[in-house]
């Protein structure tokens, strides 16, 4: 990454990576690289998930039974671990999205307070 380019990147708030991964899997099974690329594409190239963050998160989600993984052959004939959202993962995604919307609403209230009479 070039100097100065970092300023254009948005750092993920702690805990949002799990929600983003679950959301990407809501749209169908993907391998790790596909998840990272989808997050990048859907964020307008602002969010980039490095492998050092992605794979530990995927392992954590797998341990929590929110995703399950199986080895499959890609279109190019390579073996890749493909992750799929579980029923528990779908419930977790709904919970996390609800909390995220509450946080966004709270921050919006601070940044744009309604004018009230004192």
In CATH, what is the class? Mainly Alpha
**Mean pLDDT over all positions:** 89
User: Structural class of the secondary elements?
Assistant: alpha+beta
With helices defined by DSSP (H or I, 4 residues minimum), what is the helix count?
Answer: 4
Basic shape: elongated
Domain unit count: 1
Main beta-sheet annotation: 3 strands, antiparallel
CATH architecture: Orthogonal Bundle
- Relative helix content: 40-55%
- Global Rg: 17 Å
Instruction: Determine the CATH superfamily.
Output: Winged helix-like DNA-binding domain superfamily/Winged helix DNA-binding domain
Strand content: 5-15%
Order of helices and strands: HEHHEEH
Identify low-pLDDT runs: 1-8
> And the CATH topology?
Arc Repressor Mutant, subunit A
Fold topology:
Elements: H1 16-26, E1 30-31, H2 32-42, H3 51-63, E2 67-73, E3 79-85, H4 87-111
Antiparallel strand pairs: 1-3, 2-3
Helix pairs in contact: 1-2, 1-4
């Amino acid at each position: 990454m070039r100097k100065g380019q970092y300023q254009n990147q948005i750092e993920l708030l702690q805990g949002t990576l799990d929600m983003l991964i679950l959301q990407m899997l809501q749209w169908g099974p993907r391998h790790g690289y596909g998840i990272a690329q989808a997050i990048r594409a859907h964020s307008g190239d602002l969010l980039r998930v490095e492998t050092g963050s992605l794979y530990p998160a995927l392992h954590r989600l797998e341990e929590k039974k929110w995703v399950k993984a199986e080895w499959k052959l890609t279109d190019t004939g390579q073996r890749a671990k493909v992750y799929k959202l579980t029923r528990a993962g779908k419930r977790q995604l709904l919970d996390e999205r609800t909390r995220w919307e509450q946080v966004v609403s709270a921050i919006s209230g601070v940044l744009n307070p309604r004018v009230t009479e004192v």
